[in-house]
Amino acid sequence: MRRSPTRRLLRPLAALAVAGTLLSLTPATAPTAEAAVTAGNTATVFYFTKTRNWAQYNLHYAPDGGAWTAVPGVAMEAACTDWVKRTVDLGSASGLQATFNNGSGTWDNNGGANYALGTGTVTVKDGVVAHSDPCADTGTPAPNSATVYYSTEALGWSTANIHYAPAGGSWTTVPGVGMQAACAGWWKQTIGLGSATSLKAAFNNGNGTWDNNNGADYAVPTGTSTVKNRTVTANAQDPCAAAPPDTRAPTAPTGLTARADGVSVVLNWQPSTDDRAVTGYQVVRTGGSGGSVVTSVGSTVFTDTGLAENTAYTYTVRAVDAAGNVSAASASAQATTGVKPADPAPGSPLGTDPRKDPIYFVLTARFHDGDATNNRGGSQHVKSGNAAQDDPMFRGDFKGLVEKLDYIKALGFSAVWITPVVLNRSDYDYHGYHGWDFYKVDPRLESAGASYQDLIDAAHAKGMKIYQDVVYNHSSRWGAKGLFTPTVYGVRDSQWSWYYDEKQPGFEYDGLTVDPKTGKSYYNGDLWSTAELAGNTCLNWGKPTGGKSAEGYTLYNCQWPSPTSGMFPKALYHQCWIGNWEGEDARSCWLHEDLADFNTENATVQGYLIGAYDKYIDMGVDGFRVDTAVHIPRTTWNRRFLPAIQERVAQRHGAEAARNFFVFGEVAAFVNDKWNRGSVNHSAQFFTWKERKEYDADDAKASLEMYAYEQGLGPAGQPTSTNAFLQGNSYHTPDHSRFSGMNIIDMRMHMNFGDAQNAFSNGKDSDDSVNDATYNVVYVDSHDYGPNKSSERYAGGTDAWAENMSLMWTFRGIPTLYYGSEIEFQAGKKIDCGPTCPLAATGRAYYGDHLAGSVTAAGFSKVASASGAVATTLDQPLVKHLQRLNQIRRAVPALQMGQYSTEGISGGMAFKRRYTAAGTDSFALVTVSGGATYTGIPNGTYVDAVTGDVRTVTNGSLTVAAPGKGNLRVYVLGGTGKVGADGPYLR
């Protein structure tokens, strides 16, 4: 359903949507904008001297919109102990920029950002700006007083003021009284009330951002009160008082299991409880020649690797809390290792900033066939029409991908996103989203000398990353091997004998091996029974349903798994169908009949999945693309899965690798709204944030509490970020302290890429609600949808593709291309029609015919040699366009990692970007297709990376003529010249 986009708010208003609080620009008692800015404004600036101990103090300042004082500024005068001050006339300005110095070359300029100060009384103490007179005599509180503690933990404010009025009295002058820092996240002020017994209050950060309780203000009684997350607690305990010592140990872990996997052992246990919080676990191993080994872990799953072959090990686990109290040991669990697998030693991720790496997305089984012996058509080979096309669904493989890594590198891509690799089991499972054995790589993808490890190692040798698609939300309809597999009622009568295979003792399904009795690789004899099992929970086992199959065959109860049949245990799998895709059930019910929905709030399920994906982290993959992320509560991601990923990468590959291990989630929202039909829990940006409060220790209860709390706050109550935005022309260090660990696919740009201008406008409108939108994965279409939820591959034409690419490769985010789009492969074809039509007629057609021949890359975007069909492919106009775009992006750091701004810029798709870190300062002006004028920019020499044109700016302004559709201009301050050769669009 298409919905019109919400009206974009101006940034001063949008900036007021602060975490945990619904804010408005003007509280009921705050001044109007007109009253706040009047002629004759002054500011009395107090500066703290104790930590500086300078002999002299000068204030160097500029009223907002005005000129700076001559260096070193104006002298400040003594105010009181440890403070100097200066009152300055601001005229009509509503604030000032300021720095301080000792008159002899030593400066405090707020780390290069200067201090932004308002009017009235302002204090600057050790980098913190507040609004109170530090030299005022506060006197003795009146007989009635109120001590107010205010929490800014969820707001990110660096100071807090209380603007108040005693009952029946007058309000303080805006911004009110500066509160004193009490402890981390809390500010305190004691207020004399005279004869009044309460007060009305609103809070602000001194720079125009208010919390006035949604316009109702806060009613605060006498005594001690706390105000946190819009809740007033009267007669409260001092939140900063020292907590009594914690002497109670957590409960002992229960349910410890140990399962050997070669020379590794996977451990899983139920979480312990504590009167405060469990912070970790100690795993104790005995056995072998190493004696007793203790390992500290943060989750309820641990994979012990590098053990001796054919050796028995015993494990126990203890829980630990923040005070260091240790629980009693769990019951022990034993496991005996097998033989060391013959696979190569695990690799290591490249560990560099993921924003440097444009992504090429392939369906491995449909990309290039390097080994015909592992091709498999599956149970739908004939029905789908694939047999008639001689096109088995499992056709491409890792060997084929390794052989064509140079093709991808020659396009200029340095990261490859591949579809899931785990062993799948469904009727049509080539795409990989029906996991059966999460601990085993699907043999239909591997070959001798071309294992998954070989692919990872081969990519890394070429400087290319591998991003693995992973599924935490569901398994195949037949469950997950090693966790739970339902046994269905499969009667082998004259109708169904073609489907239900005879049991073959000792034969195990692996998707590849052919059962010699039936000649099928899609053997299912291990899944069914005609005799009712002991402990069966499925209702009406084996009785006819009264319905018929499409072929006219009798259908039986418990013949096909479903959430409501009782075939799956409630502890491990959810028991319902999704009814409302923007409701709570979207996170706790089945998506489809062949996707059995994990109960991800269960510790056993969590352990199974964490243990499985630890294996691939150990192999050295560079990141995870997370399928169906929106269908798991954010609390579960933030408590369990995301910390487990970080912990494992850091443990195996180091802290730097963990920081750059790229996790990006699919949070599918098929509307043009900034917030998905107003539901924050179902919006992509929501998953980039940590939780803002504590919830129940039970994950299932916590998910419901979080859902209700965040839905109650709504879009206006969500946190905001400036991490993607320049401050004027300046780059600032991003604040990732509240980052969850999950980045996102930019669904809003994706939905609007029918037109590049529309994608640009919608994309930047959402960026203040994403923790850091410079990490957004941006694509036009994919294996699921085209723009505007189209079910066809994008068919806007070559010029439109070129324009989209020019925007994607220069705007914030990580450009991503679905395989074949570089030649408009299958444009306008239905992306997926299941087994009702041949794959060759869809957007998931086999691409290998276009890659036939040989290709060698001389570097990124550079072809050393090519012959055959692949040479023709590499000669197409969009390929040339991509190669040049990748060259330019790789040469200009601002286009990779820079923050951006559109302030002072006229033009359609025009913006400026800057990246300043680690000795690099890269500043670029970009316009796509249309002309633009840039004002207020730094003076200097700018060189266009596209044409080599040189412009010298002396008045802070630069005008660029329209380069034409799909073309662009990238004027780089201090640029070195033209990058690459002219092509069909960039010239």
From TrEMBL:
SMART domains cross-referenced by the UniProt entry: Aamy (SM00642), CBM_25 (SM01066), FN3 (SM00060)
The ranges of region (Disordered) come to: 333-353
UniProt keyword annotation of rRNA-binding present: no
Q: Where is the Fibronectin type-III domain?
A: 249-342
Leader peptide range in chain numbering:
1-30
Q: What PROSITE patterns does its record include?
A: FN3, TAT
Q: Output one GO BP term.
A: polysaccharide catabolic process
| Keyword set includes ATP-binding | no
Cofactor(s), by name: Ca(2+)
Q: Name one GO molecular function term.
A: metal ion binding
The alphabetical list of record keywords is:
Carbohydrate metabolism, Glycosidase, Hydrolase, Metal-binding, Polysaccharide degradation, Signal
The identity of this protein, by name, is Glycosidase
Q: Which organism is it from?
A: Streptomyces nymphaeiformis
